[in-house]
Records
---
Amino acid sequence: MRLHVNDTDHDAVPRPGQCLRTLLRELGWFGVKKGCDSGDCGACTVWLDGQPVHSCVTPAFRAEGRAVTTIEGLAATAGADALHPMQRRFLAAQGFQCGFCTPGMVLTAASLDQAQRRDLAASMKGNLCRCTGYGAIGDAIDGIVHTEPDDGIASAFGRNVPAPAGPAVVTGRARYTLDAAPLPGLLHLKLLRSPHAFARIVSVDVTAALALPGVQLVLTPSDSPARLFSTARHENPLEDPDDTRVLDGVVRFVGQRVAAVVADSEAAAEAGCRALQVEYEVLQAVFDPEAAMRPGAPLVHGDKGPASRIHDPSHNLVAAVESSSGDPVAGFAAAEIVHEASYTTQRVQHASLETHGAIGWLDQGCLTVRSSTQTPFLTRRALCDLFDLPPERVRVLCERVGGGFGGKQEMLVEDIVALAVLRTGRPVRLEFTREEQFIGAPSRHPMRVAVKLGAKRDGTLTAIHLRVVSNTGAYGNHGPGVLHHGCSESIGVYRCPNKRVEGYAVYTNTVPAGAFRGYGLSQTVFAVESAMDELARALRLDPFELRRRNVIGPDGAPHSADDTAHTDIEMGSYGLDQCLKLVESALRRGAGTKPPDPSWQVGDGMALAMIITTPPGGHFAQARIALCAGGIYELTVGTAEFGNGTTTVHAQIAAAVLGTRPTAIRIRQSDTALLGHDTGAYGSTGSVVAGQATERAALALRDRLLDRAAIQLCVDRAACHLHGAAVQAGTARLALDALHAASEAELVGTGSSAGTPRSIAFNVQGFRVAVQPGTGEIRILHSVQAADAGRVINPMQCRGQVQGGTAQAIGATLYEELRIDAAGRVVNPAFRHYHIPAWADLPRTEVLFADTTDRVGPLGAKSMSESPYNPVAAALANAVADATGVRCRDLPLAPDRVFRALAAHNV
Ligand code: FES
């Protein structure tokens, strides 16, 4: 058939059943993204004869003889060479983070008439975004400008500098992992996954699969390296248990890999999977973590020895923490009031729009893997270990990553792709479907948290006791770290001298949990901050006042039950007092907000959260910056860009140090061939650790430049913020501009950071909600978050991180839940059934910043990607309790659950 795509005629023969999205991508139109396969997310939106359609549910043959417009061709429809007006608006408002949804968003938005633009909740309901919370996208459509022009002012620090990748993102030119023309000889890999929650694989008969046309290779447990590893990626690999194999002879959850088929096409690989004959010996499974800890429970990893570093395989414990400070017994005895209750959180998924995927090949004998990962260097290290290869024989790189949120701090695809490449010698590609993302990729750890608080009548805390049971699922990736982190800052923010923590991370035969924004804190903060609210009500104290009487102050250090973990913490700045005040004032200002009608009940709620700005145990980054011909600087960093905005921040840091414009900084990143090492983009380290390395590299280059030119600097300590090494910005810029013009030879500066000491950041969330007692529905009337991010490098981006984190957490609080049936199967592995917030579901969160400058972070900044998520659930539950007088202690606060709770209390 013939179809016209943008300005090009194509002759194509669609395969039976092929969708338009797949055909367009095969023709090289990579601006058409794949986020689902069911018309739910809109990432694949194109115009068909001028009308937006979801191309993943549009049969390819329907495009015959019709005009298809993808994001690459949008500008031409407006008679423009470079950009359509809507693309310009998305740039001006920076209506994106990772940008994976952006082509679809822009195409839908550009098709709206004036009436449709007045109701964006309805008009944009077919396009999902997991990063932004839709606020910046709405601003873009409304023509609001957030970015500031590059007007030649040397210090771009603290300004809304646009993301360097913006033009590529809005035009569809930005390349993500799988946006690549097929390499010669490319093979496709598909995985056969387990139908059983717990079973031993007796045999795999590959005969029929290998006989199918196009099937080149079948990998079974007998092909797997014997070495055990963890899918989690950490600087210190000993943080996680070695409990996983590339292909294991035992399957421990429904959806685990059983075998892999490598074939000439995806369809042939899928047919090969269907042809495999597997005999299983089904074992008794355990799904509940409390049951799994009891004597006699099935042992998920009973076959493991001490080398796996599992805390206690005979009780399914991957990790445990039991520690005390002070005298908790005496503390509770001294209390005049005690509050005690249990709180539960559910399994929620990252749902980044780009699924996991990788392409591997051999490049002159070097195993090369292009992957959607937050940790290219740690993934290379793991591949070297698994396949006994030296580092120079393995290269891992990533392009722009389409959302991560911690979910890509795992090695979920690279190992099996590498095995297939090494066995075939040919390029191999693997891309998870959306269903695989739900059944085979990690989720947030569900937790049950029992909290006991003792206090004096004036609200002074005398004792805190926390008991945490964390469901790590079938494998222990991130299980220990999430448990320790969750047990730390959630109570560390309170000065109480007597604390006791018992925590258990427990194996069950369910889909493994993993790293997810907040890293355990959102669960424990929900419990502790709900309990603090209940205590405040019992004491008839204002919830803000109860916090003020107990939180650590500017001279304090986190008070956890185990302070040995906090030896390198420095309170580089303190803005919690400001955050409390900002949210309290904002809620007071909005006191008149009206509910939909008088039958709704209205209430306010707040919660706070503290986070240490860098993970413990070492987090390393290197940076290199070179002055190239023409006055351009080339900055090389290891950290990945997945919508967190670190690329912009790095350009701003380097520009501020070098007295130049951010547009003069060209960035190369996330490729093990470029630098020695970088731990990775997780734990909000992209700005504070990699940013520190960038700052130091830029300082080193600046010193070299200034030495060389023998420039006499005018020093004015009050005019600049370079940790006291102040340079009068205007003078430096003029001098350096002259140098740029004269520069012929390349000058280089290098820098590194070990991620220590670590500072502390704070977030306070406030909500006003309305609750409908007749249905249990919750509507958010006002959402406000105050953030202590130190000196804010880019207010527009930082606000976007807070709004996006709050949006994700609202979904996780109100309705998101990965549900698992009695046989261990995920029953809602699709966006249509696992509901992430759509446009209509979210309020616009007001974001306020504390005015602080950090002594530890780069140029005074602190991290602010993870932490906005953490106080949201408790603040919402507290607002619901304020509105109705009924406490909901189990997430999600879905209407049916809230209705039942209200009905039980005759509300
Ligand atoms: Fe929308 Fe990432 S920016 S999904």
---
Amino acid sequence: MTTPLRSVYLSVVIPVYNESDNLEPLYQRLTTSLDKLDKSYEIIFINDGSQDNSYARLNELQKRRPAQIRVIHFNGNFGQHMAVMAGFERVRGEIIVTLDADLQNPPEEIPALIQAMEEGHDYVGGIRKKRQDTFFRCYASKLNNWLRYKMTKIRLSDQGCMLRAYRRSLVELMVISKETSLFIPAQAYSLSSNPTEIEVRHDARESGASKYTFYRLLRLNFDLMTGFSLLPLQIFTVLGLLTAALSGLFVIYMFLRRLIVGPEAEGVFTLFAILFFLLGISVMGLGIVGEYIGRIYQEVRRRPRYVIKEVVEHQTPDSH
Ligand code: UDP
Ligand code: MG
């Protein structure tokens, strides 16, 4: 077991959370298309605390191809991006490809990613052709992509697509950053020197349901915004200055009215409306500041980002 791991050409990293029925078809399609490449490869599955049968299924797959498949079991659910990062910490490949376990990212597209990498890029992002998700998610994500680009200047045409390829050096940079709020495609983009994007097919989920609720998507986007931009804070400062200036004018106006018209009690509700509006803005600002402080807090605590329960792999020297 102490034999050092040999390096391989390609590492495929796949986060798995309650995907037990997808694993067999994924295994079949993935190994078929990787075998065709005629390059050495490994597949790393990260079980992100699944409560279904994924644990046993993954171990069973590992037994079928012990030299090529490695499985990392987490102690609980730490999120897709943490799972991918745990895979990144252990990859042996020159080129690293990430994909989802639900077969929304067809494994048959991997050769196209690799071809783009071989043309000299250190990062290849996927753009989903004819995205197979709900109408709401497609449009929400278009809007979100636009907003994110304006705020962070990170050009990801399709931030939700995890079918991507990275050069090993880029992955190593991400691993040493040790950030607690992760959004891997964006981080990779900001570190890469020669990124590109290609179109990839996108299928409907093979089985099971999406693990992202509206709330989780929102959290993920906060991670993205706060992780790569101070713009929310700056917008808030400008907004504060503007409202202070307007309120100042309003005070002068009221004062003059008091002198000219005399005491008056009308307009109390208008005043309330204005007050509530300003209060709303202040609370929102506190929230934005809180989003940053919360992340700073997590960062300084330096707790482990995830806990690994078990790693299933055979460290044979002749893995191909
Ligand atoms: N996933 C994970 N941990 C989570 C949520 C999701 O490892 O907490 C995995 C999931 O098993 C899948 C991938 O991340 O392989 C993408 O998840 P999903 O298909 O639910 O997201 P969507 O395609 O709806 O964006
Ligand atoms: Mg999916």
